Amino acid sequence: MKIHIRKMLSFVDEVRSEAGRAADPPLRKVAVAAIVTNPYAGQWADDLGPLTAASEALGREISSLAVELLKPYAPESYGKAAIIGLAGEQQHGSAMLTTVFGNVMREVAGGGKAWISSFTKRAAPGSTIDIPLAHKDALYVRSHYDGISITLPDAPLPGEIAIICAYANRGQLNHRIGGIAAKDIKGEDGLV
After folding, report:
1. Which domains does the chain have, with CATH numbers?
2. I need a surface site. Which of 33, 101, 163, 179 has the fewest CB within 10 A?
3. What mean pLDDT do residues 167-182 have?
């Protein structure tokens, strides 16, 4: 299945200080959204596998753009999301955010061992979505529990899906509430 992209939107949120303390490096969070036609809008389909298969090429394209926006920094955390237009089902977006999409996000990020946090919802154009972020190698690193909020001004239309990937270069600024630190991650499974 070929997915038609109507438009792409890119977002950069860079925080250089917080609580009067300079951030070194700054916290840069990025997201890229592809607004695509939903071939299943308004109709039932037993098999959503074609959406999952199509998510690989789409994921590679938007993840590559997002990692470029993050430069000169490397990804330390990631997240994914979808907003499904009102003529579609939540499952249509979920079908595009499976392991197929996630594996591409990991590959483009230079690796990642942890499960990728995600969020999906059905909504009208102009909706805001909060994309959860977590450390790419160990889900339990508290400093990297974060997110990026984006608003899509004219998307998704009823027969569209917004597929979104997000990355950040570091954890929260001024983190001091304990827990596993990124420097403590060991092993193939990302556990300490």
Report:
1. 5-184 (3.30.1330.110)
2. 179
3. 90
